[in-house]
Amino acid sequence: MSDCKIGILGCAGRMGRMLIKAASEREGCSVGGGTEPAGSPSLGKDLGELAGLGSLAVSAGEDTAGLFAGSDVVIDFTAPAASVAHAALAAETGTALLIGTTGLNSDQIAQIEAAGAKAPVLLAANMSLGVNLLLEVVEQVAAALDEDYDIEVLEMHHRHKVDAPSGTALALGNAAAAGRGVDLDAVADKVRDGIVGARKRGDIGFATLRGGDVPGEHSVIFAADGERVILSHKASNREVFSRGAITAALWLNGRSAGFYSMKDVLGLSR
Fold this sequence. Notes:
The chain has 270 residues and is α/β, with parallel strands linked by helices. It has ten helices and twelve strands. The protein has two domains: 4-123 and 238-266, NAD(P)-binding Rossmann-like Domain (Rossmann fold); 129-235, 2-Layer Sandwich (Dihydrodipicolinate Reductase, domain 2). The longest helix is centred in the middle third of the chain and has 16 residues, at 129-144. The mean pLDDT is 95.
């Protein structure tokens, strides 16, 4: 079988460069192309040189439609509005699309999900295999422990991250809410400042830390009188995200149209 040709949107960004490296190093993969927005100083540069690998004889371009046409799977770690447009392009071409963009609102997620009717689309707030196992465990623990156990989601990221709480923190909150059989929007407490009163029973709280170069740290705390259960994941570098994305891309290649998640990749879908 021929290699799975991976197209990378935003190929000159930090994650884009890591995806180039991960795809180049994974057996059964090749870098089919990469794009950057018009005016980017990286346009025309060799993707391998952007990733510090030496020449791959593939240059960064700005033809997004061409990237979809020439790729087996396109990977998108860009921005919410761009990801929605890319999902529409996937629906037009039938090309598999893997989205790791965070900060999406409910309407944008719905538009991306709709694209799954015409193309294989996978959306995940976090591509780390470990984080996605954590999501499953959090849901199970939340189902087992009643509201005597207060749930708090704590996350820390580097100083440059623009959205808060992180997409992964929200995914963990949703996993806990699913375990409890409640709607996260109805029980989420994302801001505490001033005299806020006692904690409301059944709420799921969020705390956000920003600083340094932390790739991502997440903990879900189940706190009751006399004990705490703490489930955590710490990423020490961003390679865990790029490796997970390539694993997911290989899984997505050749799938029928549908809207998928990392649970499907890990065989955890019920």
